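Quarterly update from the structural biology core.
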Amino acid sequence: MSLVTLRDITLGFGHPTLMEGINLRIEEGERIALLGRNGCGKSTLLKLLTKEILPDTGEIQFRTGLVVARMSQDVASDISGTNYAVIASGLGEIGQHINDYHQFSLQSD
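Predicted structure, tokenized:
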């Protein structure tokens, strides 16, 4: 079974329709890249995959237990630290251990 299957997705925020009749399958082990001009629907597709928005028509199926997450394009003004530390902080206690290990590995004897 696919990780994610989109069938006949249509989505619009007015006119013109942003997506019409979109079909996509993402299989386990695949890597994908989203390339396109501003406004063509890359972020919208990611929002569909994270269930932040719903399609006007069509069906999205997820493998049972699959978790989909995305990082916002907008950086909050109150964030400080390295990119590594900020990303690790989103992993909770495990992220703290990973960040501690990373910092320790950077120290020279």
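Strands lie at 4-11, 19-26, 57-62.
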